[in-house]
Amino acid sequence: FDYLITFGWAIVGSIGMGTGLLLCLKMFTWATHEIDEWEELKRNNHSVAIVIASVILACAWVVSAVIRP
Fold it and tell me: Please, are residues 69 and 9 in contact by the beta-carbon 8 Å criterion?
């Protein structure tokens, strides 16, 4: 029974993390409307890749702290 509870929390955590990261990236894209980050990533702009990676890691850190039971 404990394994089922743990698996349920893993599902809830995954859904929460995915939703939080999507919202965070949408807000970041909205806040930086002067630049198209995804087009810059396609052009191998490493500085934009580092900034987006840091945004993803920061959001993941916050969301994981919030959904921890």
Answer: yes
What is the model's pTM?
0.66
Q: Please report which confidence band the pLDDT of residue 33 belongs to, taking 50, 70 and 90 as the band edges.
A: confident
The SS3 call for residue 49 is helix
- State residue 37's pLDDT score: 85
Dihedral (C-alpha) 47, 54, 41, 44: value to the nearest 10 degrees? 40
**Among candidate residues 22, 51, 21, the one with its CA nearest the CA of residue 35:** 51
Residue type present at position 52: I
- Dihedral, CA of residue 36, residue 40, residue 42 and residue 44, to nearest 10: -170
Q: What contacts 40, CB < 8 A, 6 or more positions away?
A: 48
Q: What number of other Cβ atoms are within 10 A of residue 40's Cβ?
A: 16
